[in-house]
Amino acid sequence: MKRDIKKAGWDLIPCFANTLDLVFKEMLEASSDWKELVQRCCKIAEYFSNVEAQGHLKRAQKTLRLPEHNLTESKGDKWLSTLNMLERILEQQEAIRHVLLEFNVDLLLSEHENKNIRKTASSLQAFKDVISTAKRFHSLSNIIPQVEALRKKLKELQHSGNEFANELAKHLNHHFSKAKENDWLTLSTALDLRYRDVVLSEKGTSTRIKKTIIAEMKHLDEDNKGRNFRQPDNLDKALSRYLDKNMLQSNWDPLAFWKFPKDEDWHLSEVARKYLAVVSTAVPADIAFDTEKARLVASRRSSLDPEHLNMMLFLNGNCFLDS
């Protein structure tokens, strides 16, 4: 697929969610100690997936007055499922220890290992804190601000002596070191009024972005000459008007701002739609075509007529378009 995309002359932007999983996976592969720790936690979760072991865990939880939760299993190569597994192990560590000691199971974690589990969980929690803020609008414009936020959080953890955060930050930088050199990422961010100043605060990057946006508007103007399209009074003024506007809150729809542009801002609006309409992750599409995940729609919305469901999905995905 990547080869054919390149052959067609299209730009390939890797799925952001998949890239973060890759950052986590590569970090584990590069560090045998952290990989062995995660694998050991996977074995503990797997042991307590047995019905009999779950019964022993429930009794220990009641004795210790802990929440009666089962452990969460993970394959060990996805950051979010690994985080969920580690958080549950930390929550139930006393009950787990109680059962493993009682039945002489060789899966006990040392105090040093528990300390490293907390470091791992706090680092992955930084991922969750940043990513969870973009639940609805998965535009390319999210990527650079989220990477910057991730770097900041990981740096704070590094200062507190978190070695896992340090290794994770290295692999994150490896994948996103050239993010601000990519026009699709920088222009989408600059034309998103929630994050505009993240990329325009750097002089060199800002100059290049503004020139590219003006060039895009000029190209659009040339294509539409003679077709009775709205003509701009001045392309530079249109961009300046946008740059003078106040920033929007992070929970706003970035495309809603460009939905009803004034005549003089039409060209800039079209350029913004071009870049903001590209999604940053393939996760929604993956869910749509995954039978295991897709069946949740059928079970939770079983009373909906298929035609109505399709229309709801279509309208939700295209609500930003003009009628």
Automatic annotation (TrEMBL):
GO terms for molecular function: protein dimerization activity; zinc ion binding. It is found in: Nucleus. Pfam families: Dimer_Tnp_hAT (PF05699). GO terms for cellular component: nucleus. Keywords: Metal-binding, Nucleus, Zinc, Zinc-finger. Residues 239-318 form the HAT C-terminal dimerisation domain. Its main location: nucleus. The keyword Disulfide bond does not apply. PANTHER family: ZINC FINGER BED DOMAIN-CONTAINING PROTEIN 39, ZINC FINGER BED DOMAIN-CONTAINING PROTEIN 4. This is Zinc finger BED domain-containing 1-like protein. It comes from Labeo rohita.
